[in-house]
């Protein structure tokens, strides 16, 4: 459908009309072309769109972090970019399927009033390290220290 309009220009009649139109309106067309920088327009649009998305998810994430204590429950990491949702019931797979993940999950949690049951806040490191119900090395280390002191 998008190409249909161009087909007219490929017929002799269409070509003739187009040429004539161009000759008649040359200055107008050139001015229009010069005034427009498609690449710039595109970049501006892209930037605006990215910024919009970024702000939305950033605000939401900040809100989520505040609701859950603002730092990793394991190591205390508080840089927002590192923080992630921890499924304390280790049902991450099912939960992601049911509620989504990333901003979508955060939006759902917000709707539900930030439920604490089954959710905690972990940094990427601790989240990664505790997959498959493993104990985070942070906790192992502190356990070692504790047992070493005894
Ligand atoms: Zn951590
Ligand atoms: Zn940890």
Describe the protein in words:
A two-stranded antiparallel ribbon has the order 1-2. It has helices at 4-10, 12-24, 26-35, 38-67, 92-99, 103-111, 124-129, 137-149, and strands at 83-87, 119-123. It is built from 8 helices and 2 strands, in the order ααααβααβαα. It has one domain (43-149). It starts with a helix and ends with a helix. With 150 residues, it is mainly alpha-helical. Bound molecules: zinc ion (ZN) (2 copies).
Strand content: 5-15%
Please give the oligomerization state of what you see. single chain
Task: Give average pLDDT, whole number.
Answer: 85
Provide the low-confidence segments as ranges: none
Q: What is the string of helix and strand elements?
A: HHHHEHHEHH
Form type? elongated
- How many individual helices? 8
**Structural class assignment:** mainly alpha
Largest sheet data: 2 strands, antiparallel
The helicity comes to 55-70%
Key attributes of the depicted protein:
mainly alpha, elongated, binds zinc ion, 150 residues, two-stranded antiparallel ribbon
Brief overview:
By secondary structure, this protein is mainly α.
Secondary structure layout:
Elements: H1 4-10, H2 12-24, H3 26-35, H4 38-67, E1 83-87, H5 92-99, H6 103-111, E2 119-123, H7 124-129, H8 137-149
Antiparallel strand pairs: 1-2
Helix pairs in contact: 1-2, 4-6
The structure holds zinc ion (2 copies).
One zinc ion (ZN) binds next to strand 2 and helix 7.
């Amino acid at each position: 459908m998008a190409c249909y309009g161009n087909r007219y220009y490929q017929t002799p009649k269409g070509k003739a009309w187009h040429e004539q139109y161009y000759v008649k309106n040359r200055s107008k067309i050139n001015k229009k072309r010069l005034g427009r920088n498609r690449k710039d327009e595109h970049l501006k649009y892209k930037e605006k769109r990215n910024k919009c998305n970024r702000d939305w998810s950033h605000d939401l994430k900040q809100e989520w972090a505040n609701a859950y204590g603002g730092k990793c429950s394991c190591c205390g990491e508080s840089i927002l970019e590192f923080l992630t949702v921890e499924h304390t019931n280790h049902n991450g797979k099912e939960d992601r399927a049911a509620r989504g993940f990333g901003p979508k999950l955060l939006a759902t949690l917000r709707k539900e009033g930030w439920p604490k049951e089954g959710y905690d806040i972990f940094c990427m490191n601790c989240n990664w390290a505790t997959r498959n119900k493993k104990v985070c090395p942070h906790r192992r280390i502190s356990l070692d220290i504790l047992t070493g002191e005894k």
